[in-house]
């Protein structure tokens, strides 16, 4: 959870982030979202309904990462995509520009992460970035800069541009103040710095990532990943972000 006085997370985000990064208990997240969704629908709160649909999709997304992306069934991908699409439609209908940015980003995730299709993901991420920078919350802005940064690492090979986006993504998470979200942002920046030839800073940022994983109580999936990449970087390895689609 964010600390007292810190900026708010998007509606529906907290139980999903807690499950994804700390507890692994997605069933608890699903129950919390379903309960809140029923209340929102009963009250006719379409903005909250759309936000909760979006985070139901994000819960599916993190479950998919847990299960292993190489073995996903098509219907699993389609279920996540359908929720993001429903949320986006609702948000467009009420002119919720911040929400539109968040759900455009979600659809980009489906294409990039689940399908490995950067060409399909690109327009969603870049439209999300434009909307997010003007209208959205800190987490949505951080996420869109993060994945546009990855786009430049993988697709354009503009490593300096990638580093800029990933550095900004980390800064936004630092401003948000949620300790669960820092380690993976530092990991991404550290890896990008290694690719850009900035090995000394890259290793230093990866060390920070390991420390942040501990202070954020991250589950082994993430804590092991950060520690492994620090070890590999200290041994002289540079990440490869070769495009697969």
From TrEMBL:
InterPro entries: TPR-like_helical_dom_sf. This is Tetratricopeptide (TPR) repeat protein.
